[in-house]
From TrEMBL:
This is Glycoside hydrolase family 92 protein. NCBIfam families: aman2_put (TIGR01180). Residues 59-310 form the Glycosyl hydrolase family 92 N-terminal domain. GO terms for biological process: carbohydrate metabolic process; glycoprotein catabolic process. Keywords: Hydrolase, Membrane, Transmembrane, Transmembrane helix. The keyword Membrane applies. GO terms for cellular component: cytosol; nucleus. PANTHER family: FAMILY PROTEIN, PUTATIVE (AFU_ORTHOLOGUE AFUA_1G10790)-RELATED (PTHR12143:SF25), PEPTIDE N-GLYCANASE PNGASE -RELATED (PTHR12143). The lineage of its organism: Eukaryota, Fungi, Dikarya, Basidiomycota, Agaricomycotina. One of its GO terms (molecular function) is peptide-N4-(N-acetyl-beta-glucosaminyl)asparagine amidase activity. It comes from Rhodocollybia butyracea. Residues 316-802 form the Glycosyl hydrolase family domain. InterPro entries: 6-hairpin_glycosidase_sf, GH-type_carb-bd, GH92_a_mannosidase_put, GH92_N, Glyco_hydro_92, PNGase.
Length: 826
């Protein structure tokens, strides 16, 4: 994640602060709607892939992680839609606009948004606000601090808000019901006023975005058309620069014609200027328009508000709105959105028999959250002209490269291809691949250049389909090499500290970066090394053997940071840690391995913070000392062998070094696999689910990180953990008797079925350990990982479960998951 809600950091640039089956299985009616099935085209065995859950969207709980720092967006959006219509509150945790905590008031209903990010609240643009009654037109409270009102509360004290994929609703304390739905670039709002509201009014706030105000707004009210067009400039969330955003807002009575608007005017701060259609002299501060409408004469007054947005022009915003919602049919828009969500979520099927509903909800809610961002802004890129797709909101690749994109490999390759093309296009026009990006702006880099493992992940799995998917293999490779070897002017915003990396094969202590902070040298080195490993996999596929050898060698740079003399305080047997090194190759600066963990006596943090001078980013040295995903076998040697490695992992867990809140820890629960003790991985990864993820509004351990936590949940519940840029998925037992991934490009379904599956014992003790694996009935080489090939065919993977936690990966030469130093990945 980025700056957590619990920490603050100061930017010098803004002078502002922020927080920072193959059988028919019978299950309860409520869950199974399995009338539909289809036949596998497999030549050998004719098998039936079952649809266990026809409408998975019913299990999505959009409010998971919407308070206590989860920063999840619960509003209305299509999968990867540009428009994300949602309720904005005055919470300091309003990065996604919303906060489920009733102590925060509603201040508007805005059109864009990110989800699960840190940084600064942004994309909460062009808020609409309803008034049931103002003392008079000019006395409507306009400024967000004055117009704020609580939401209604339910008997249990929670807010009266409801949401489902593509739909959001709230009841305000002013008796106004607000509902939101969305198409790709247009929001549709419905404001239903109380029956005694004789002068229903709506305000448009053109400038208030999260905690910052936009500036240089322009506006035109067309009272006869009941249309407002406008634009303003806004600052980004996590980096320098600004973006220009346009809107086109139309109003219509639902079920009646309200005629002309009866009153109109502009407003600035607290003052309404009646009968004005533009601003005069407004440069900054909250500003916009207010309109009064005739109420319905028979029945309830509902005003539909259609909001188009564009990064190009107001005219384009109007075009989007007119093309996407010509019929003003709220129910039609809502049902189309729901249909798109169900089609996408249905690709991953689980058998819910014997599983509690909360686990099913956790699964599909996690899958849902992986498809909120990146957002598809194709046709909306103001920075260069290109016929390629344009996706934005990579916030940040550092968070999402480990699990989110590998999940796309399993069920959404077409989307993955579009995002890959969009990233390559950013390289074409900006020189380097994006790392962190939002609102069309480059954001601060946290560690490595993590588009590299993302593009490598795509290519390793889909290179035979690259041409079909219009992904240029040569441009993809060139963009990776640029990232790896060409240093940009400002490696705080793109690329790498490439010169030092190429020359020294590690990032030395000494230089400073963002705001005077250290450059996170150790975590950077480890990420560059893994990045280069993934590039070597692409080079190999392309037949570039010299390059492949070079990048493979550089990947070994991880071990340049290993200081064999550093021990974990209190645990002298834990010897050797990743540490800062000078450019002369000397470990002359000690970083306490507890640094930035819950055990840190200095309670230091390691966010992007000018006061961070210790070389690590968002995880302790103890955690980073596990981070060499491409060569865990060698790491085991460095740590003193298998027994010491297992002991160290145990200590990481029993002393709370494992920190689920941030992604560098995410592979650790599965690392016992490399020591031939997969049962311990099963135990720990199941504990992660039970202890840290649940379906409540605070059910996330910190930020969702743009779906990174959602994808992590899906993998853990599936009994899988991916190594990006490789063909392997580490394997454990699923939380369901069956998990199946359908791939629309291959037109295949891979079904993982757990034989002897007997539930999910909360203490991890039970029939949850994989004793053997068969593929279409034939014994498999390993009980510890699955190869990508199995996901390219209609495959039945059967795991036989046992209650013996001491079982190993198998006895064959390929039973352990691969590592470079033991000849893996060839
Ligand atoms: C996918 O497979 C099904 C079942 O074999 C077949 O009916 C269908 O035509 C295939 N679709 C495509 C696009 O190949
Ligand atoms: C709001 O109030 C309406 C009418 O009383 C009710 O149908 C609805 O369930 C309430 N809650 C939401 C979130 O719409
Ligand atoms: C409408 O009725 C509500 C509750 O019955 C009341 O609080 C409100 O003041 C009324 N509004 C007007 C404009 O009469
Ligand atoms: C709307 O306003 C225009 C201009 O003031 C006027 O010509 C027209 O008659 C009005 N229409 C209605 C339905 O009030
Ligand atoms: C209101 O009256 C009009 C005209 O009489 C009718 O067309 C419309 O359906 C009515 N609306 C409602 C909500 O009853
Ligand atoms: C790839 O490009 C061709 C030619 O521009 C186009 O016809 C085709 O639809 C594209 N395919 C995809 C998956 O974008
Ligand atoms: C990788 O680095 C380690 C430590 O520096 C060294 O022992 C090992 O030989 C290196 N491996 C290769 C293939 O260069
Ligand atoms: C570890 O300590 C020994 C003894 O002081 C020293 O000789 C050696 O160079 C040190 N190794 C590192 C990597 O600092
Ligand atoms: C933690 O793990 C270590 C290594 O296995 C073990 O020696 C120690 O007893 C464990 N401590 C606790 C509190 O479980
Ligand atoms: C739900 O998860 C959150 C975040 O990990 C945790 O703080 C909270 O205690 C959990 N709630 C329950 C009821 O387990
Ligand atoms: C798989 O494991 C189960 C349970 O341990 C055992 O009964 C069975 O014989 C094993 N099958 C194979 C093919 O090894
Ligand atoms: C799976 O698919 C791949 C690629 O299409 C093919 O090479 C492989 O032989 C297939 N394996 C099986 C077991 O069908």
């Amino acid at each position: 994640m980025l700056a957590s809600a619990h920490y603050q950091w100061i930017t010098f640039f803004f002078l502002l602060f922020f927080f920072a089956s193959f059988l028919f299985i019978f299950a309860p009616e409520s869950i199974v709607a399995s009338s539909q099935s289809f036949l596998y085209p497999a030549a050998s065995t004719l098998v039936r892939a079952e649809i266990f859950i026809q409408n998975p969207a019913e299990y999505v709980l959009p409010f998971i992680g919407t308070t206590n720092g989860g920063h999840v967006f619960p509003g209305a959006t299509l999968p990867h839609g540009m428009v994300k219509a949602g309720l904005d509150t005055n919470s300091p945790d309003n990065q996604a606009g919303y906060d489920a905590n009733p102590m925060y008031d509603a201040i508007g209903f805005s059109q864009l948004h990110d989800s699960g990010t840190g940084g600064w609240a942004t994309l909460s643009n062009f808020k609409i606000w309803p008034y049931a009654s103002c003392p008079s037109f000019t006395e409507c409270p306009t400024h967000p601090t004055k117009r704020a009102v609580p939401r209604k509360l339910l008997p249990d004290g929670s807010v009266d808000d409801a949401a489902s994929p593509g739909y959001f609703a709230t009841n305000l304390s002013t008796d106004i019901r607000v509902e939101l739905t969305a198409t790709h670039r247009t929001a549709l709002h419905r404001y239903t006023f109380p029956s005694n509201s004789t002068e229903p009014r709506l305000l448009l706030d053109l400038t208030t975005d999260g905690m910052k105000q936009g500036y240089k707004p322009t506006m035109l009210i067309e009272p006869i058309k009941a249309r407002i067009t406008g634009d303003a400039w806004f600052q980004g969330s996590f980096g320098p620069g600004e973006f220009h955003l346009f809107t086109c807002v139309d109003f219509k009575g639902e079920g009646y014609d309200f005629g002309n608007v009866t009153e109109y005017g502009s407003w600035h701060m607290h003052a309404v200027e009646p009968n004005t259609i533009t601003f005069s002299g407004v440069y900054s501060g909250a500003a916009g328009a207010v309109l009064t409408f005739s109420p319905a004469t028979n029945g309830t007054t509902s005003i539909l508000t259609r909001v188009g947005v564009s990064f190009i022009s107001s005219a384009q915003a109007c075009r989007h709105a007119e093309e996407e919602i010509p019929d003003w049919d709220f129910e039609r828009v809502q049902s189309d959105a729901l249909g798109q969500w169900n089609e996408l979520l249905r690709r991953v099927q689980i058998d819910p028999t014997g599983v509690d509903e909360e686990t099913v909800q956790l699964f599909y809610s996690g899958l849902y959250r992986t498809h909120i961002i990146p957002a598809d802004y194709t046709g909306e890129n103001p920075r260069w002209e290109s016929s390629e797709p344009y996706y934005d909101s990579y916030y940040c690749n550092w968070d999402t490269f480990r699990t989110l994109f590998p999940l796309f490999s399993l069920h959404d390759p077409e989307r993955f291809a579009l995002i890959t093309r969009a990233m390559i296009d950013i390289w074409r026009f900006e020189g380097w691949l994006p790392e962190c990006r939002g609102s069309t702006l480059k954001y601060w880099i946290q560690g490595g250049s993590n588009a590299d493992p993302i593009l490598s992940e795509f290519f390793v799995k889909y290179h035979e389909y690259a041409a079909l998917l219009n992904v240029s293999a040569s441009d993809l490779y060139d963009s990776l090499v640029t990232d790896a070897e060409v240093e940009p002017g400002n490696w705080d915003l793109q690329g790498r500290q490439a010169t030092e990396w190429v020359n020294l094969n590690y990032i030395p202590d000494g230089r400073s970066g963002y705001g005077g902070a250290s450059t996170r040298q150790v975590s950077r080195t480890l990420e560059y090394a893994f990045g280069d490993f993934t590039i070597s996999q692409v080079a190999k596929i392309l037949g570039k053997t010299t390059d492949a050898a070079k990048f493979t060698l550089r990947a070994n740079g991880s071990f340049n940071m290993w200081n064999s003399n550093t021990t974990l305080p209190g645990f002298p047997s834990v010897t050797g840690m990743m540490q800062l090194k000078s450019k002369d190759g000397v470990f002359d600066k000690y970083t306490d391995p507890r640094h930035c963990s819950v055990n840190d006596p200095k309670h230091a943090t390691c966010y992007l913070d000018p006061s961070n001078h210790d070389g690590f980013y968002e995880a302790s040295p103890a955690v980073y000392s596990q981070y060499v995903p491409h060569d865990t076998a060698q790491l085991i040697n460095f740590q003193g062998g298998v027994d010491k490695f297992i002991e160290r992992l145990d200590i990481l867990f029993n002393q709370s070094y494992f920190a689920v809140t941030n992604e560098p820890s995410h592979q650790i629960p599965f690392m016992y696999h490399y020591a031939n003790r997969p049962g311990l991985s099963t135990k720990q990864s199941r504990r992660v689910i039970f202890e840290s993820f649940n379906t409540s509004i605070n059910g996330l351990p910190g930020n969702d990180d743009s779906g990174a936590m959602g994808s992590y949940t899906v993998f853990l519940l599936s009994g899988l953990y991916p190594i990006p840029g490789t063909k392997q998925f580490l394997l454990s037992s699923p939380f369901f008797p069956t998990v199946a991934f359908s791939n629309p490009l291959f037109n295949t379904t891979t079904t993982i079925k757990a034989v002897n599956w007997a539930g999910n014992p909360p203490d991890g003790v039970g029939t949850v350990y994989v004793s053997n694996v068969t593929i279409n009935g034939v014994p498999y080489k390993s009980n510890c990982y699955l190869e990508w090939d199995l996901f390219r065919n209609n495959t039945l993977v059967e795991l036989t479960l046992s209650d013996d936690p001491t079982l190993g990966c198998g006895s064959g030469a390929d039973a352990l998951p691969p590592s470079l130093s033991t000849g893996g990945f060839d």
